[in-house]
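Lab notes, practical 5.
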Amino acid sequence: MPEDGLGSRFPVAAQSPGLLLWRVTNRWQAAMRAALAPHGLTHVQYVLLASLTWLRDREPERLVTQVDLAGFAATDPMMTSQVLRTLERDGLVERLPHPTDRRARVLRPTAAGAAAARRATADVEEADALFFEPVDAAAFARDLAALGVAERPQP
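Output from the prediction step:
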């Protein structure tokens, strides 16, 4: 172990997978912010709105709750609640009373919300394609899946 004061097992910082992941994640988040800025959405707003729109498109009769959406999108339930209030205030999401659970709300994207999610998705996917162009994106996705970052099952 080198005597660098830190006690790192990596002689060069760029050999640390964790540090590299941190740096790449920050660059990717910046690319997502730039792609979403014209749509007036933060990344988490987009993720929740797009996830809700995706669920609604595939299962229109399903009653999606905040807990369902947080699980599907892998977001913190309390943060999800706060973001949904903002999306509701902006007219992009409806939070309706649940027919059988007084504590729960049924979530639906408004027509404007679904349209915003679809427009933003085109720009997000374009930004993703540009960002991941230097690497084999399919192999990278497989590597991420091996680390437990695979697609979450539907709630």
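Observations recorded by the TA: The first strand starts at residue 93 and ends at 97. The mean pLDDT is 90.
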